[in-house]
Amino acid sequence: MRKISIFLLLLGCAVNLIFIRCKKASKNQKTITGKFVSFWGDTHWIYTFDSLAKYEFVIRGHLGFSTTKGTYRISNNTIYLTAFPKVEQQDSNFYFEKDTLLIESDSCLLGVPLGYEHNLENTTQKIFYESKRRDITKKGYPIID
User: Fold this and answer.
1) Among candidates 134, 138, 143, 83, which has minimal Cα distance to 111?
2) What are phi and psi of 138, to 5 degrees?
3) Is 143 exposed, middle or buried (0-12, 13-18, 19+ CB in 10 A)?
4) Closest Cα partner for 114 from 31, 38, 34, 30?
């Protein structure tokens, strides 16, 4: 009987440790919300994120016209985008299946691998400017001239 009690006590402790560890992991999960915009290559690039880990990516201009919808996850300073299946896309012939962005700050994301800035939209001043390009291979992501 004593062995069963000790086993149950140890099992209870293990379950509590797992539960606490899972809670800590969920606290570290992040979401991002808002509309991040850029303009380069005579094209508007717009990422819209919601708090339910869904996104919409819109391209309008010289380099194409498309909308991609899907889900995202954040790990450290990186956002990983995964599109919904092809049949759920507005244009199943032209959408981005996977994409990656770096979080430079709360108001700036950097595209991978080209390094173009996507800035949080300023709703009071809707000005699109030629986005700066950053060297994402170097510390501090310096601007490329």
Assistant:
1) 134
2) -115, 150
3) exposed
4) 38
Among 106, 112, 101, 43, smallest CA distance to 72 is for 101
pTM over 0.90: no
Is the per-residue pLDDT at 20 higher than 50? Answer: no
CATH architecture of 34-144: Beta Barrel (2.40)
Cα four-point dihedral sign 40, 81, 47, 93: positive
Give CA angle at 30 (132, 47), nearest 5°.
40
Reduced to 3 states (helix: H, G, I; strand: E, B; else coil), residue 55 is: strand
- Beta-carbon contacts of residue 133 (< 8 Å; ≥ 6 apart): 40, 114, 115, 116, 117, 143, 144
pLDDT digits (tens, 9 = 90+) for 33-48: 999 999 988 999 999 9
Map out the domains of the chain as residue ranges. 1-29, 34-144
79-96 tens-digit pLDDT: 999 999 988 888 777 778
Write down the residue that tokens 């979080």 correspond to. Answer: 103
